[in-house]
Amino acid sequence: MRLVSIALVACTALIGGCGGPETSQANNSSANISNDSRDVNQASANLEARVSLGDAAKIMHTRHEGMETIGKDFKALHREFDSPAPNLALVRTAAGQIAGLSRQASGWFPEGTGPEVGKTGAKPEIWQPQNATDFSAKLRNFQIAAAAFNAVTTRGDVNAMKARYADLAGTCKACHDKYRTDMHH
Amino acid sequence: MKQPVWDLPVRLVHWLLAGLIAFSWWSVHNHHTDWHIWSGCSILTLLIFRVLWGFVGSSTARFSSFVRGPRTVLAYLRGHWNGIGHTPLGALSVLALFAAVAVQVSLGLISEDEDGIFTGPLSSLVSIDTSDKARDIHELWFNVVLGLIVLHVAAILFYRFRGRRLTKPMITGRAALEPGTQPMRPGKWWVALICLAVSIGVVRWIVAGAPPFGHWTPPS
Questions:
Q1: Distance between CA B175 and CA B166 in Å, rounded?
Q2: Predicted ipTM of the assembly
Q3: Where are the domains of chain B?
Q4: What is the pTM of this model?
Q5: CATH fold of B2-207, please?
Q6: Euclidean distance between the first and the last CA atom of chain B, given in angstroms as a whole number
Q7: What's the CA gap between B126 and B117, in Å, rounded?
Q8: In the A/B pair of chains, how many CB contacts fall below 8 A?
Q9: Dihedral angle computed from the Cα positions of residues A107, A113, A115 and A121, in that order, rounded to the nearest 10 degrees
């Protein structure tokens, strides 16, 4: 476990620090993320220590609300991008909110916040040791894609926004397909 | 001597519909929502085609030949009926199945998934809340479709035990008729092609997000 978290921290530092071969737009987004690499490191530390039941309830509530907000933003964005004239102010607000929540998501999955302690769509596989690297990588991909999408919305190129939005959707789906149950709420 | 009772379009629609309903169920439960949406669009194409063929197709395909009032249904139940194609009672089952599938497809057209990643082709015509509600009902309504399918299969088994095989004619299109029964009058192949072109055209139009249907970006 310690080895894994050291590797994670190293990866985080690597991803945050390097941006060489990427485009300027990607540089921009990795810069945004490196400010928050502290949160991500914190999350890998959290994976080791089980949280108390009270804390678990709080975190699961925050996680649920956060995911719901991201979902609502995503639905609103889908409609804007389907429309012939997207409302860019709305797009930017939603993109900013998703990027902000994606950074907070680093703290949403400490061990002890799975289905064994309460109602959640999070599968127990998230906390199986063999999935630790994969889950962290998927969360990280989501954060990078959310920051890249947020960055591209500051400019006026709607097609570029749609492309980053599709990338972002892919990172949501990749994680949900593997680590979320089909829940009804 | 076996004679024609079901034409090729009717049989194709029947088996494609059965296959696509199964595929729709499988794909949406295995994280292939994009395939699920295309499957639904294909089912819509079949439904439109079948409705058109129900007016201009072969004699056993036409609604006018099998949609009958309650008196004929009762007479059939008492054993007073002699003909080919859908029985008066079977016709009710056919209509119920088609109506249930039509409702299911309509709900799917305006639905969106839980995450807002996938939307139905006409979802932009309704609000986000309506799309979410439509998805919930779409999920529940599948049980209605499933119930009618179970009834349909149960009826086929019931007739099978009474000595009538209904599945084979739906595959080969032919059955042994009692003497004096009018065989099927076939439709024209080029009329079937026109119906197919119209149904594909309408669905293509919806998928393209062309007005008046609103705008839609198909899942990539």
A1: 9
A2: 0.82
A3: 2-207
A4: 0.84
A5: Fumarate Reductase Cytochrome B subunit (1.20.950)
A6: 52
A7: 16
A8: 49
A9: -20
